């Protein structure tokens, strides 16, 4: 095995390679450009990298990680950086004959797979969010989704859904042992043009109880370490002072006909690593 060398540091013997998991069931190849470890891989999807960690230590490359111990990854010496233990993600499978998103014959990025297939599963050890009212097949009613926003903003967003061709919302929520509450919503529209017109996820989103949000500064720095092209547009935001008892962070992903809205809240502050990890994994599922 070739030894890993880190610029500016003496060479050390490479740690033993983690056991290779058994290959996942074969699935159609996705020709769309994506992050390393994204749905173009023949096996299960993987988190491309703990981008915050690598940005902090100045590493120049990324490793596919979901369950690996940090001691198994070259350049990382401590056992935990706070990432969550997500199950291996299965690439969504479109119906027979349907094109995958962003293929040459599906440039608008229409997702033909069932919307629940595109929804990120909860990490191990998390408990379902009892506050999130979910109907059969993870469907979320419009009024339930709008509870995330200030009452004064809800009617405008609801009318926009009618005007902008909203087809369906699905969602999943969970709480982890550290007290972080996560809600992931996927909104399917009739086309990518309607997704582009949606204003409910961005710098001006009027979230309930939030005074002001701004760009996630740690994410902005971490993005500099990523060079792989991406068909999706991602924006990450965080509540800025003055903050109440809880801080909230929001991830917005535009992927063809689907808009993802990812919200995490936690007493005092939301940890950066699991928030970024959650957004990256959901982005990979949307492909």
List unreliable stretches of 5+ residues. Answer: 1-44, 46-79
**What is the 3D form?**
globular
Regarding quaternary structure, what we see is single chain
Strand order of the largest sheet: 1-2-3-7-6-5-4
The ordered H/E elements are: HEHHEEHEHEEEH
**What is the average per-residue confidence, as pLDDT, rounded to a whole number?**
78
Radius of gyration: 19 Å
Share of residues in strands: 15-25%
The percent of residues in helical segments reads 10-25%
What does this structure look like?
It contains six helices and seven strands; from the N terminus they run αβααββαβαβββα. It has 287 residues and is an alpha+beta fold. A seven-stranded antiparallel β-sheet has the order 1-2-3-7-6-5-4, sandwiched between helices. It is globular. The N terminus is likely disordered.
How would the blueprint of this fold be written?
Elements: H1 51-57, E1 127-128, H2 142-146, H3 151-163, E2 166-175, E3 181-189, H4 192-197, E4 213-215, H5 217-222, E5 233-239, E6 246-255, E7 258-267, H6 272-286
Antiparallel strand pairs: 1-2, 2-3, 3-7, 4-5, 5-6, 6-7
């Amino acid at each position: 095995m070739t030894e890993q060398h880190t610029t500016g540091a003496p060479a050390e013997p490479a740690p033993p390679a983690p056991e290779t998991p058994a290959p996942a069931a074969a699935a159609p190849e996705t020709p769309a450009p994506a992050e390393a470890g994204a749905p173009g891989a023949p096996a299960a999807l993987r988190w491309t990298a703990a981008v915050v960690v690598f940005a902090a230590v100045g590493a120049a490359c990324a490793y596919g990680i979901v369950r690996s111990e940090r001691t198994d990854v070259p350049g990382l010496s401590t056992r935990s950086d706070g990432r969550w233990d997500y199950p291996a993600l299965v690439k969504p499978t479109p119906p027979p004959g349907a094109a995958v998103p962003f293929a040459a014959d599906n440039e608008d990025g229409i997702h033909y797979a069932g919307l629940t297939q595109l929804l990120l599963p909860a990490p191990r050890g998390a408990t379902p969010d009892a506050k999130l009212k979910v109907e059969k097949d993870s469907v979320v009613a419009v009024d339930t989704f709008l509870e995330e926003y200030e009452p004064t903003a809800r009617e405008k967003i609801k009318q926009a859904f009618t005007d902008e061709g909203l087809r369906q919302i699905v969602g999943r929520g969970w709480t982890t042992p550290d007290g972080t509450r996560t809600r992931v919503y996927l909104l399917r529209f009739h086309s990518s043009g309607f997704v582009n017109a949606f204003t409910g996820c961005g710098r001006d989103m009027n979230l309930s109880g939030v005074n002001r949000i701004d760009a996630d500064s740690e994410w902005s720095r971490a993005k500099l370490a990523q060079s792989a092209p991406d068909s999706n547009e991602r924006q990450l935001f965080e509540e800025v002072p003055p903050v109440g008892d809880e801080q909230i962070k929001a991830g917005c992903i535009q992927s063809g006909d689907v808009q993802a809205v990812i919200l995490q809240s936690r007493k005092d502050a939301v940890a950066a690593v699991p928030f970024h990890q959650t957004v990256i994994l959901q982005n990979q599922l949307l492909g």
